[in-house]
Specification:
Layout lengths: L13 H13 L16 H5 L26 H5 L5 E4 L2 E4 L3
Antiparallel strand pairs: 1-2
C-alpha cells in the first residue's frame, strides 16, 4: 500500500500526520517513510534518525545538447526514464 500526504500550504501538519501514520504502520508491516518536502524535509527529526542514516533523494533531469543533436530522436528511444519526447523534429525534456 502507498499512502501520500500532500498539501499546497505549509504548516498544515503534513509531517506530523505522515510520521504518525508511518509509526502506526511500522507496528504491523515493514514501512518506508519518504519525506519529499523540497524546503524542509523534517520527518527524520521527528523520528530521531541519526544523520549518518539519512539519505538524500533527487530526481535527475536530462539535458539535451542542442548543438550535438542530429534530430534522430535516439535520445527519446534510449532514455530509460521516459523523460525525453521527440516532438516536431526536436527533443522535449519532460520534467515533473
Amino acid at each position: 500500500m502507498i499512502v501520500a500526504v500532500a498539501s499546497g500550504k505549509g504548516g498544515t501538519g503534513k509531517t506530523t500526520v505522515s510520521v504518525s501514520l508511518a509509526l502506526v504502520a511500522a507496528e504491523e508491516v515493514p514501512t518506508t517513510l519518504l519525506d519529499c518536502d523540497a524546503e524542509a524535509p523534517d520527518a527524520a527529526l521527528f523520528l530521531a534518525v541519526a544523520e549518518e542514516e539519512r539519505r538524500d533523494a533527487g530526481v535527475l533531469v536530462p539535458r539535451v545538447d542542442r548543438e550535438r543533436c542530429r534530430g534522430t530522436g535516439e535520445c527519446a528511444d534510449v532514455c530509460e526514464y521516459g523523460a525525453i519526447a521527440f516532438v516536431g523534429g526536436s527533443p522535449l525534456v519532460l520534467s515533473w
